[in-house]
Amino acid sequence: MPASPRSRHPQAVLFACGMNAVRSPMAESLLRQIAPRTMYVRSAGVKKQELDPFAVAAMAELGEDISKHKPTTFDELDDYEGLNFDLIVTLSPEAHHKALELTRTHAIDVEYWPTADPTGLDGNREQRLQAYREVRDSLQQHIRKRFGRHGLGNE
């Protein structure tokens, strides 16, 4: 099925994962790096948890400061500003199911990018941080591939 013109060139993108503490805040920040100023980018989770310090550290390595990110749920986002998005990119199964529920009442395209959850891994600090870097780098590749033409001209 071909992508609709709206989903190919979205004006408002929501990244969603389980807790809005690691994957979706990373993706939000990464897309903001290359998106035109006219594109609205947010993130949300099915539930919420405190922002993960390893996610903050992994993004800081790229010069991105996500330390002020406040985890938000779909329901809170809907209450605060509505779900006026052209595209929801889901990064976890629970977020994908929630997004599909929303598309019953909202005309929103949904894309599923299965993304590993690095939070449950054991190991020393460097090994754990490496898992977050891998998630960050994977998201960055997906974002450049999907949205690069909307970037600053060199993508």
TrEMBL record:
Phosphotyrosine protein phosphatase I domain ranges (all copies): 11-149
Q: Which InterPro entries match?
A: Ptyr_pPase, Ptyr_pPase_sf
Q: Which GO terms describe its biological process?
A: response to arsenic-containing substance
User: Which domain of life does the UniProt lineage start with?
Assistant: Bacteria
Residue span of the signal peptide, if any?
Answer: none
Which UniProt keywords are listed? Arsenical resistance
Q: Name one Pfam family in it.
A: LMWPc
- Write the protein's name: Protein tyrosine phosphatase
Instruction: Give the organism the record lists.
Output: Rhodopseudomonas palustris (strain BisB18)
